[in-house]
Amino acid sequence: MSDKSFISGWGGYPIEEAEQLAPASVRSFQESLKNQGPLIARGLGRSYGDSAIHSVIAQTKYLDHFLKLDTTNGTLKAEAGLSLREILRVIIKQGWFLPVTPGTSFVTLGGAIASDVHGKNHHLSGTFGEHVLSMTVLLGSGEVVTTSPFVLPDLFHATCGGMGLTGIILDATIKLIRISSSQISQKTIKSRSLEKSYEAFDENSEATYFVAWIDCLKTGSSLGRSVLLLGEHSERGDLALSFKKPITVPIHTPAFLLNKLSINTLNASYYAKAKNNRSKDVPLASFFYPLDAIGGWNKLYGKQGFIQYQFVLPNEGGLSNMREILKEITKSGSGSFLAVLKKFGPANKNLLSFPIKGYTLALDFKATSSNVSLVQRMDEIVKDSGGRVYLTKDAVMKESTFKATYTKWQEFESVREKYGAIGKFASSQSKRLGLA
Ligand SMILES: Cc1cc2nc3c(=O)[nH]c(=O)nc-3n(C[C@H](O)[C@H](O)[C@H](O)COP(=O)(O)OP(=O)(O)OC[C@H]3O[C@@H](n4cnc5c(N)ncnc54)[C@H](O)[C@@H]3O)c2cc1C
User: Fold this and answer.
1) Cα separation of 132 and 123, whole Å?
2) Which residues does a 6 A CB cutoff place in the pocket of ligand 1?
3) Per-residue DSSP letter, 253
4) How confident is the model at residue 302 (pLDDT cuts 50, 70, 90)?
5) Mean pLDDT over all residues of the chain?
6) How does 205-214 read in b/e, with b if 16+ C-beta sit within 10 Å?
7) How large is the average pLDDT for residues 26-30?
8) What is the pTM of this model?
9) How far is CA 14 from each of CA 39, 138, 379, 389, rounded to the nearest angstrom?
10) Which residues pair with 132 in a beta bridge?
């Protein structure tokens, strides 16, 4: 099946014309690869920029089967196009959960591995790829191979976080974690400044899940004030899971509605409503996936779309560099409704994996030329601080910044060459970043 139309990532920027293939079997993936490469795999398109965009894309939507759920040992084998949402519907009621989950359940298993996604527990549990026991990958040659940390480890560590550029992940076996309730015991802490937020992260480093929502339009001594959420799997309640029917943003909202004034108002009311030192049990879906309750929220930024900008700064000098970036944002008058701050543990062996030990901040900006310049100015601060920008969110990073910050990119290219990926797999992002 094939169809040519305009596609984008979740940010709606950039938009490009693509031949969209939807192979229904491994054999048809092999045929597409032989006749229509280079191409790029695409899951649910929740990456924000251009990593799942190319003139030819291969959707994985028909690779959506459960293959084996071992409820004794807590492992799941499933096809790569299956969404985390469908996985959760099955595993939670059996008393199991994902060891790492991003902030949306509308992500495929293959997309979670290819971006080596992280959750609110990176400081303790690392990335999604660190819980993959093995996977099957379709190489550029058409050969299907199994890889794990012990079998073809170079391919494994290039594919976890490899943004689809080593091959198409067909299926994977992952480890699960035990839970006895689908409730999360959530504690809220309010902090008046960025320093206090960092202190709160340090004081609560034992918390399983930890995230802070920062008001990034505040200046002076309130710069970086935030609402911090800590979470533990509760022992109370049952294993019921309810994903509420999302309320839907029907059309693209005029972009002017999200301006400095409206964002300031939203941020102020969110901060005011939060109750300090308050604990309560909340459903797992609302703790992990609050945005999934609003279908099509990406349309709020208007037709021109938005850039989601996520970077990480290492601990050394991180606080003053973070302050410098926040000042850059407040100076510009741009910025998102509540930016998200998380603490990362150490980096892993995956060649293009994003996390390094330090703090990461994610924010949204309308896709305007002045915001592209702002993001590129922030890129310079991130680069000079020894940090990096998350590839699955990126839409504008320069090749020089990528190559200076993802220092294993040459090793990554060697693995791609060894496994016949060059000339077979490419995305608009990989071309922009100067990968072969
Ligand atoms: C609301 C929201 C919250 C988010 N929160 C987080 C978060 O907390 N942490 C985090 O890390 N990320 C987060 N993300 C980003 C998201 O988890 C990643 O972009 C993820 O990769 C999207 O999966 P997908 O199936 O939609 O993949 P796509 O967007 O379709 O593709 C993403 C990349 O994966 C590759 N890919 C997809 N499937 C395959 C496959 N079968 N084989 C090989 N390559 C493949 C694509 O080529 C592309 O490079 C969030 C996104 C949204 C919209």
Assistant:
1) 18
2) 10, 40-47, 51-52, 60, 80, 102-104, 107-108, 110-112, 114-115, 117-119, 163-164, 168-169, 291, 392, 427
3) P
4) confident
5) 92
6) eebbbbbbbb
7) 94
8) 0.96
9) 17, 28, 19, 17
10) 174
